[in-house]
Each structure stands twice: as C-alpha cells, then as structure tokens.
Amino acid sequence: MPRLLCDGRSLELASDQSVLDALSGAGFEVSSSCRVGACQSCLVQAIGGAPPARAQVGVKDSLRAQGFFLACQATLTEDLEISLAGASALEVPASIAGVNLLAPDVLRVVLETREAFAYRAGQFVTLLREDGLARAYSLASLPSEKHLELHVRVLPRGAMSNWLAGPAAIGSQVRLRGPAGDCCYVPGDSQQPLVLAGVGTGLAPLWGVLRDALAAQHQGRIELWHGARTPEGLYLTHELQALAATHRNFSYHPCALEPGQATSDVRLGNLDQLLLAAVPAFAEHRVYLCGDAGLVQSLKRRVFLAGASLQRIHADAFVGSH
Amino acid sequence: MSSLYDTLGGAAAIEQAVDIFYRKMLTDPRVADYFESVDMDRQRGKQKAFLTMVLGGPNQYTGKDMRTAHAHLVKRGLNDDHVDIVIGHLGSTLRELGANDEQIAAVAALANSVRDDVLGR
Known about the structure:
The complex is a heterodimer. By secondary structure, chain A is of the alpha/beta class. Chain A is 21% helix and 31% strand. Chain A has three domains: 3-88, Ubiquitin-like (UB roll); 91-180, Translation factors (Elongation Factor Tu (Ef-tu), domain 3), CATH 2.40.30.10; 194-318, Rossmann fold (3-Layer(aba) Sandwich), CATH 3.40.50. Chain A has helices spanning 19-25, 61-65, 85-88, 159-165, 203-215, 237-246, 271-278, 293-305, and strands at 3-6, 9-12, 43-48, 68-70, 80-83, 92-103, 106-113, 124-128, 134-138, 148-153, 173-180, 194-199, 222-228, 250-256, 267-268, 286-292, 313-318. Chain B is an all-alpha fold. In chain B, α2 (10-27) crosses α4 (40-54) and α6 (80-96) packs antiparallel against α7. Chain B starts with a helix and ends with a helix. Classes of the chains: A alpha/beta, B mainly alpha.
C-alpha cells in the first residue's frame, strides 16, 4: 500500500482512499468543504514525490509547479510526502468590515485586507474562520475597489453562513486563500456578444465580470440573466437597471420561478428555458454561467448544443459543503 | 507528406472539430449515454487528444490509454456498433471541415486500428 508522509508520520492509504480522508482519519486538521474538487479548500503541498495529475485540475499554474494539489481528489499509487504548512503560507489575514442583507437569504460580506490582495473579477476565494472552518465564495468586487465583497447565501444549517449572519462576525479576523477560477472577462474580441447567466449568489462573480467588461469598454451586446425562486430573492436589481439605463449594449433580465408580492417586469419560469428561448443560437457568444451546480451543468450542455464552443463557456458551479 | 492535421489547419482546426464531434455524440441517442460526463471540459480534452491522434497530429495517446479509458464503458455494453457510429460521426465532422473521401477513409482506418484497444480485446 502506498504511504503518505506528513509531519513526521507515515500513513498507509487504501487504493480508493483520498489523501484528505487519510489525513482526517489520522487526526490531522485539514480544511475542506465541497470534497469534489471544486472549492480548493483542501489544498496541500507535495514536498516529495509527484501528486496525481487529477488532483491538480483547476489549481493555478504557479501553485501546481510548487506541488500544490487538492487532497480530496488525490488517491495514491506511490508514496508521497506532503507539508500542511505550505498551504497556510498562502493565506492572507483579513477582517470582516461589514455585513448587510442584499435579499432575505443573501448577505453581502465586506472584507478588508492589510496588504493588497491581487485577483481578477469573477474569481473565488476560500474564507477560513479562526478555527479552520473553510468555505469558498466568489468575489463580487473589482480589484480596483478598496474592499473585497462576497455574496453569501444563508443556509438553514450553514455553519459559516449563520456565523456570518450573526453578531459575532463583524470585526472578526479571518484568513483568505486564493484567488482561483477562470470565470473572468478576457479583454479582446470586444465585439463578441456576452451572455452572463446565474441563479442566487451566482450573481456575485457575474456582477464582477459585468463591471469588468463595461470598464474595459466591451462593445458587443452584454446580457445578464439572473434567476431566483421568487422576485424577492433577486438583488442588486436597482444597480443593474441603472447600468442598463446608462449602457446601450447592456440588458438585464431578471427571472423567478414563482410570482411574488411585487408586480414587476420579472419573467416567470426556469432560467435555462427562458434563456434558450430568448437566445436560440450561441455560435458567436462568450458565455458565463454561475451558481447552483445542477443548473450550471445543465445550462452548459444546452448552451454548447446551441452552438457555443466549450472553450468560450466559463462556468463556475457552486458545490455545497458536506 | 503533410498530415490531415496540418491540412485542416492544425491545433485551431482541432478546437473546432472537437466541438462539432462532441455535439454529434451528445445528440445521437445511440451513443449519447456513453458521452455523458459531469465534467464536459475533461471529456472535451479526451476527445481532443483522440482527434489529434487520428488526424496525425502531435499526440501522446497510446493503445494502453484507449484500453484504460474505455474499460468502464465496455462493462456497460460498449461494442462494435458503437465504434462504427463514432467513426461515422468522425467522418461527417471532417467532411464539414472540408476533408475529402480519401482523407476521411485514411482517418477511419487509423481509428479502426485502435478498435480492439477501445473494446478491450
């Protein structure tokens, strides 16, 4: 059986056991969240031997070159030595400067870092609480802005989201790891039509990508489709309407599954059906899809079959924690 | 002699070919189930490697890779009929990109050369 060497200890791994499970089982404290290779909370560094390629998918090139990999995705066929300190060195201290409600179950969390935190609009970070609790969230802010902004959906039993919603969070010291992800606006091809579609807090990266594209003076049409269960769950509506009013090439399409109290111009129905009915062909488009993993995967497939090249679909599927 | 890979336009043509080819698989009910994949990008990467190989481009694909990659599909019933269908879609993809009958036949012959590896024989 292959052995995993970590901080002077040697663990034997069964062929289907992940490095993350082996470490947790042996009492090591390793942050983790989604456990399916999406959130990058469980990043660890190999210092002897090569980590499996499959566990480095999505890891930033510079980190991959230093041996960083996702512990949840790594099973071993040969011995590997790792360091848990490596990942801590990547973390940046931050403090929670503000929390307010954007929608009944969505928080805007504003973070302040002492040193500049380099990222691209639309990327995501791992937020680590002092006790090691980790969750990945997309950045809604722009690098040119002073603070970092996250949109956090408050889940009934969400450990991080309920803590953030409570009184203890404001002013707390946290750590950030990242950024990661390539759900970003790419300058060039400025005439290309863009479609940005997301549900719930999938709006966070789209809000960043949209403002980044507008700041880069993108010339092609830009459509932003945002879906929620009811119209009350939609947020940043005034800001988006204001952008649509001041930018001729930008349009905002709010959608909801069920009608709500407010009478408004919200379209009713499934976001994917509404989008595909409005945009029948995607051959020319660059597409950004964010939010609930099931919806993002289904939309990605449908948009691909409707003519979009897979290379021009930037998708960020949010995977819940276990 | 230049390969069809170069004749069609090299790496850029492969990007276009793989989108067309993958779309054909996903919309053909006879094989679509075998191409279902949670991660479409990973699936696309595999198809790109396959197309590069059969078009004579720079590739590191080996018979062993083909064997390992398809073993779980063979367990689910992958057989010669499916391979025929895939080679058919490969041909129509190349036709859309401007290949002629002779070129398509040469690619089909290369694809056929890994048939036994794909089917684990």
